[in-house]
């Protein structure tokens, strides 16, 4: 919303040439694609989305690294904990209601032959989610493995289904079994990496 894909690509190219000696956000600011104030605002929105997503998990692991924040962030970055709690709980309630209307997690999503104008009117988040639908990824993969938060991905999936932009295909039993085994192995690898 604040930076175009071309501007991001240009920023990434420059950042790579600097071998990580500066932060990507500094490169974006240097190139004039975003001001520091807008960057801090975006950071606040990102942190809020991460916190809201935490409400959707029953368990998990975390590391707490205590450190000093830059003065500008300390001065500009304020989160209202009471608002975060209310909004997080509201999202959990909405998420649980929507989950009942979602197709089974092992269904594969396929784009339908849709009205080009309707596709062109998709907002940024819907466009990102729609772009991930390739006839191979199942509902669970799209909800939990994409760039959107689980909550946002669920909202986009609901919208695409309601508007008839996607349809569902059941997996063959062998493919379903294979995916389940792969997921168990992936989760096991994560636990092993964490020393559990």
Top keywords for this entry?
single chain; 196 residues; mainly alpha; 10 helices; 2 strands; 61% helix; 4% strand; globular
Termini, distance in Å?
40 Å
What percentage of the residues does DSSP assign to strands (E)? under 5%
User: What topology, given as strand order, has the largest sheet?
Assistant: 1-2
Number of strands: 2
Q: Please summarize the sheet with the most strands.
A: 2 strands, antiparallel
Q: Helical content, roughly?
A: 55-70%
List the helices and strands in order. HHHHHEHHHHEH
Radius of gyration: 20 Å
Class by helix and strand content? mainly alpha
Number of helices: 10
Low-confidence stretches: none
Give the overall shape, derived from the CA principal axes.
globular
Q: Kindly state the mean pLDDT as a whole number?
A: 81
Structure notes:
The structure is a single chain. The chain is mainly α and 196 residues long. The chain has helices spanning 5-17, 24-30, 36-54, 71-76, 81-101, 116-120, 124-132, 139-144, 150-162, 173-193, and strands at 108-111, 166-169. Helix content is 61%, strand content 4%. A two-stranded antiparallel sheet has the order 1-2. The N and C termini lie far apart (40 Å). The model has no long low-confidence stretch (mean pLDDT 81).
